[in-house]
Amino acid sequence: MQYLLQLLISGLAIGAIYGLIAMGFAVIYKSTGLVNFAQGEMTMITAYIAWTISTTVSGNVFVVAISAILAAVLLGFIIERVVMRPMLGEPVFATVMVTIGLAVILRSAINFIWDAYPHGLDIGIGRGIVHLGGIGVRTGQIAVITTLLALLVAIWAFFRYSKIGVAMRAVAADDRTALLMGISATRVHALAWAASSVIAGIGGVFFALSYDLSPAMFQLGLKAFPATILGGLDAVLGSGLGGLLIGITENLAGGYIGSGTKEIAGFAMIIVVLMIRPFGIFGERDIERV
C-alpha cells in the first residue's frame, strides 16, 4: 500500500509539472486559436534564468521567484511582438510552423548562452523530505501540486468571470467581430503569450528544483502537449488535469509493469481517450485541425 501511495504522489508531482506546461499551451490556444510548439523551450529558458539568478545574484526564494516571473513575462511579450504579431492574419498552418522554427532558435540560444552540463537549482525548497504516514514526500512535490491546483482555480475563474478573460475568448473565437466590439486583438495576444510563458515557466522551475537543468528539458513540452490534447486543447482546466493523469499513469505503469512501459503508458491512454472523445475529455467539438 505504501508503495502504491509513493507512486501516486510521485506521479501527481511530475504530472503537476506536465499540467502547468500544458496549461500554457491551452492559454495560448484559448486566447489566440494557435498552438505554440516552442512551449518547452520557453519553459526551459525561464528555468535557466532562475538558476542564473540563484547563482549570481541571490539564492533567496522570493528574489529568484520574482525574477523568473518577470523574465517569463518579458519573454512572452518579446516573442508575441517580434515573432507572432507579424503573423496576424496568416494561415494557421504557417503560424504553427513559425513556432516550430522559434523552438529551434530558442534551443540553440540556450546551448549558446549556457552549457550542456546538468545544473541543480537550490533555493532552499524542493529537495527536503517530509514524512507522511511512513511515506517520504519531497517539499517540492507538495509545492508543485499545490501550485497547480491553485492556478487551475485561478485561471478557470479568470477566463469565466474577468473582462480580460472574456475578451481573450472572444478574440480566439472571432478576432474580427471582437475588434468591432472594441477589443484589441494585439493586446489580448500579448497578454496571452505573457501569461502562458509565466505558467509554463513555473512548471520548469519546479522541475529544476526536483531534478536538474539540462538542454534536454525541452522534452517537457513533448510530454505536456499530449496532456493538453488529453484534457482538451481549448480547456485550460482539462489540460492541467490531463497532466496529472499522464503523470500518474506513467508512474503506475513504470512501477508495476516495468520501466520500459513508462514512456508509452501515457500515450497509450491518450489514444484510447481520443478514440472515444477526439476533442479531449473536457474539450469542445469545434477545434480547428491543422
Quick rundown:
The protein is mostly helical and 290 residues long.
What does this structure look like?
The structure is a single chain. The longest helix is centred in the N-terminal third of the chain and has 31 residues. The chain has a two-stranded antiparallel sheet. It has one domain: ABC transporter involved in vitamin B12 uptake, BtuC (Orthogonal Bundle). By secondary structure, the chain is mostly helical.
Biggest pleated-sheet summary: 2 strands, antiparallel
| Radius of gyration from the alpha-carbon trace, in angstroms | 19 Å
What is the correct CATH architecture? Orthogonal Bundle
Tally of DSSP β-strands: 2
What name does the CATH topology carry? Answer: ABC transporter involved in vitamin B12 uptake, BtuC
Q: Biggest sheet, strands in spatial order? A: 1-2
Q: What sequence of helices (H) and strands (E) makes up the elements?
A: HHHHEEHHHHHHH
- Overall geometry comes to globular
- SS strand fraction: under 5%
Q: How many distinct folded domains?
A: 1
Would you identify the regions where 5 or more consecutive residues have pLDDT less than 50? none
The secondary structure category is mainly alpha
On the 0-100 scale, what is the average pLDDT? 85
Helix content: over 70%
Q: At the first level of CATH, what is the class? A: Mainly Alpha
